[in-house]
Amino acid sequence: MANCKLLDQLQMKKYSTHTCQVPGRDRRSLVRITAIVFGILGLLAYALRCFARLTVAAQQWGISDWFITLAVMVMIPLQVLSIPLANHGLGLDMWNVSTDNITSILYLYYWDEMIYITSLSLTKISILCFYLKVFPGRQFRYIVYFLIFANATYIVSFDFLLAFQCNPIAGAWLSWDGAFQSKCISINVLGWTAAAVNILLDVAVIALPLPELFRLSMSLRKKIQIILMFAVGFFVTFVSIIRLRSLVEFGNTQNVTQDYVEVGYWSTIEVPVGVICACMPAVRSLFSLVFPKVFSTSRRGYGSSFGSRGPSVMLSSQTKGGGSKLGSLGSKLDNLDPTKSIKIKQEWTVVSSDVGRERYPSDEELVRPPRDSGQSAQTAHAI
């Protein structure tokens, strides 16, 4: 290693391993299968989200949907690139890969890094735009705007650093053997910094709405479902941490095509799981139509409504001042078949404490109960 060029070292390593019949590692199938499986899962979650927008009433296409669409469009090449990476030898020991293929792997990785950064941040921006749609609190929204700006800055800054990591740029994939002279930023430091900032942004985005959610008046089952949804988000952070650990030898490796495997397949896991996390609220509203007992968004009750933080609606067939719209609606309900129900599907909004006591419509089911002269018909619903 002290006196030989890298290509000579690889030739010697290849000769010694073959002569001594040392089996080489082959993880190419792991690279392919991981990318394909999680890519399909991410696309399936996005397709269900789009289907929910088309089938669930009041599920209108919004800015968060545009951002997740952009994230998916960027995610697809990230997953697809894993196949040519594996075909060129990612997963084999470096001395068993031709020099041209090593260069091709590093060239694909050059683009892979920027695609990874962009897709992750677009997914977080989509989630933050969804928060703006749901949480009306002024202070909360200021924090959301700041995090959107932080993620946009993350995309621009790290994509720029990755794009110009070497001077000339081609050094990013040509200078590995020492034959091509270039000046490069430490890819190890750059990778660690990008991963650490990404983890901080992940934690901020996932933890931000938790205090608001836990203050809501809702059933234990609903709280468990919401916790499980956010657990998927924390899994993304967990994957980011594992990926950060795999970057230890990212810039100091002597076996590029083998040591880059972990970084590659954890990236192709993290991005689709982030997309799945962003799509889960819309998918849940779709499942509530198919499995209403499991994903029900309403409770029925008489004579009481939920707490001041939960949206509610009350319908009375006996109101003061017969000319009111509420009384008119109540009289119309009296003429309905008691076995029938009216379903109103509207996208829910969380009422924050600084908005006052204004009510926002939720997923509601208005049901006319049996007549009771001393009691008005009313239905209260949680998110």
From TrEMBL:
Its main location: membrane. It holds the Pfam family Fung_rhodopsin. Keywords: Membrane, Transmembrane, Transmembrane helix. The chain crosses the membrane at residues 33-54, 66-86, 114-135, 142-165, 185-214, 226-244. It is found in: Membrane. One of its GO terms (cellular component) is membrane. Residues 48-288 form the Rhodopsin domain. Residues 303-330, 355-383 are annotated as: Disordered. Residues 355-371 have a biased composition (Basic and acidic residues). Residues 373-383 have a biased composition (Polar residues). Residues 303-312 have a biased composition (Low complexity). It comes from the Eukaryota. The keyword Plastid does not apply. InterPro entries: Rhodopsin_dom_fungi, SAT4-like. It is a multi-pass membrane protein. The keyword Cytoplasm does not apply. Belongs to the SAT4 family. PANTHER family: INTEGRAL MEMBRANE PROTEIN-RELATED, PTH11-LIKE INTEGRAL MEMBRANE PROTEIN (AFU_ORTHOLOGUE AFUA_5G11245). This is Rhodopsin domain-containing protein. It comes from Coniochaeta pulveracea.
